[in-house]
Prior knowledge:
Number of helices: 10
Distance between the termini: 27 Å
Radius of gyration: 21 Å
Helix content: 25-40%
Structural class: alpha+beta
Order of helices and strands: EEEEEHEEEHEHEHEEEHEHEEHHEHEHE
CATH topology of the largest domain: Nucleotidyltransferase, domain 5
CATH class of the largest domain: Alpha Beta
Number of strands: 19
Strand content: 25-35%
Number of domains: 3
Strand order of the largest sheet: 3-2-1-9-10-19
Amino acid sequence: MFGPLLRQDIAIDLGTANTIIMVDGEVVIDEPSIVAIDQTKNRVIAVGQEALHMHEKTHKNIRTVRPLRGGVIADFAMAEAMIRGFLAKIPGSRRLLKPNLRLMVCIPSGITEVEERAVRDSAERAGAREVYLIHEPMAAALGMNLEVEAPKGNMIIDIGGGTTEIAVITLGGIVCDRSIRIAGDELNADIVEYIRRQHNLHIGEKTAEKIKIDIGAALSNIPDPPPNRNVSGRDIMTGTPRTLSVSYREVVNAIDKSISKILEGVLQALSATPPEVAADLVEQGIHMAGGGALLRGLDQRVSQQTNLPVRIADDPLRAIAKGTSFALQNLHKFQFLFIKS
């Protein structure tokens, strides 16, 4: 599928939970950000979906690793291996010419210089000739077709796996932002802890994720509520497998503190927004992206807290990747948005 040099530009949404790779505006990889390692031979045996199937089911010779935590690289070597693995999975990847390979990677707005360098180094060591970085809120805005260069204020809330990115943008720049390391992974942990505390049942990370997706909600009263969901795990008292029924209202209680912290970050960003830009938000509203935007009732809760209209991206899971790809395809136009390595 790769043509001559134009097809050497690859956009990567390197997320804590999922990695999305786009080539020429098309999604070619959308898989979990996880690596499986054979510890006896010290080599990677699987990345992405194959590694996720092994997660929490491995024996002592196989270990699964999530290279990113809180939106940043926690394991440099594994991040590099994961990027290499994903690039190798791209259809036609054998025809990739590494001397002509350019990567654009989106990063949290609150990233440190050290964390930024880790992203650059991982991408470069994976084979990229040039690496460009773009902040996630700006990529999300581009992915939602917002006029980022216009003299209008827009607020972006991107709730991913490791971080919640909150930013107010105008005239091609970020006026104020908050990067909170509370997002999808923290909500999963909240659910695991709630089920353990309230029902003496130990469940895994993947089960908690499924509960969140199937019956998760941010409000206790939502239209068309989901039915109760059966959940299986290990009984803490007896050590034997057990199944129980969980309601969506229990999930609301489980994740309420984390949702409140996200809302607190939104209010802090609004309070730091200049008056004229804040006035724009009355009309422009708040735009939500990322997997967390799909949580039932979260848009309503944000709207109630801020008294602003809230709009969810048409494709919240891929909005950042689409924006990153769009910026890469229009490199000459959006050079002011990113830093070339």
